[in-house]
Amino acid sequence: MKQSLLLLMAATAVMAQITINEVQMKKMGITTGKVNLVSSTTVGPLIAKIDYDEEQSKSYFLDHEASIVALKVRAGDQVKKGQILCRIASPELLTNGFELKEVQNRYRSIQNNVKKDEVLYKEGIISYRDYQIGALEAASLRSRILTLEAQFSLAGVVPSTDGSMAVIAQKNGIITLSPLAVAEKIIPYQPYFRISNTDAMTAIINISPKQIASISKGDKVLNKAGSSIGSIISVATSVNGSTNSATAIARISNRSGELRAGTTTGLFVSTSKPVTSVFIPSNAVVKHQGKSICFIRTSNGFQAQELAVVGVSKEGVFVRQKGIDQATQVAVSGLIVLKGAMSGFE
Predict the structure, then answer these.
(1) Which of 1, 191, 204, 272 could covalently link to 59 via disulfide, CB atoms 3.0 to 4.6 Å apart?
(2) pLDDT at position 285, please?
(3) Where are the domains of the chain?
(4) ω before 45 within 30° of 0 (cis)?
(5) Which parts of the chain register pLDDT below 50?
(6) Which of 3.90.226.10, 2.40.50.100, 3.30.2290.10, 3.40.190.10 would CATH assign to domain 59-195?
(7) Class assignment of domain 2-35+285-343?
(8) What is the structure's pLDDT at 332?
(9) What is the CA 61 to chain-centroid distance, rounded?
(10) What is the pLDDT of residue 70?
């Protein structure tokens, strides 16, 4: 056996070329079979991360540090609009609360003067320039009020000058993110509270570069049982270099309690255009260094080939790549011997 394996070995730079004749194949129990060309409108399973639909959620952020001083609700609690979620302490928001109150008072006062100046200008008593001074100051104050109010709105906080501020629920729903304890620090620009509709979920689906052209907005998303549970709402045209995959977003309309936010699952996409793939049976596929490979029959023996898998089933894998077509023959038995030869095992 040692001598036979040495005869098998050839170059192993990327994928091994394995030299073997018919007699050696028969002796080692290596047989071959054909692959099948299939046309399907279903792609998958595709790895998908499940999350709540952000369009139907409300997340709370701060642009500076703060601390939780009181917790009224926790993750999993149902809340109603207007309900207090927690109280926070923030020197910056406290300062902004004082400023907002002052600016609002100044704005109301100047607005009254602007109305009077408008009458005086129309009657020719004051110049347009004098009238514009007050109007421009009022516009500047109004802009600052909107900026401060937006900051409080983003944080979900009611402006206060009494030392701590209440975070108010801005919609009905369930708490899907909350601080864990009093005195916990709120990290700037990261959500610290979120209210969601648990019936509105999305799936963030990873798709390979070869699958981008096959999947379109509006395509149906299927679970493992083949039931339609949603549809694709967007497909990225670019590929993430670190993962070598693109992202498709699906809105889940029927989860039937089987999908939970934060989990990953395998989903299928029913495409609007048929996809032609080569089907390789499972007994012809092995793993090597974390990759799926098969052994393609050549005139001198076999070529180990990494597979560009676009779909998986219990019976085998679907691939789309150059060098593999309906005329390809692959090893269907004796794969352990071929893998050992490829790896240099004796």
Answers:
(1) 191
(2) 92
(3) 2-35+285-343, 44-55+197-273, 59-195
(4) yes
(5) 1-14, 345-346
(6) 2.40.50.100
(7) mainly beta
(8) 92
(9) 20
(10) 84
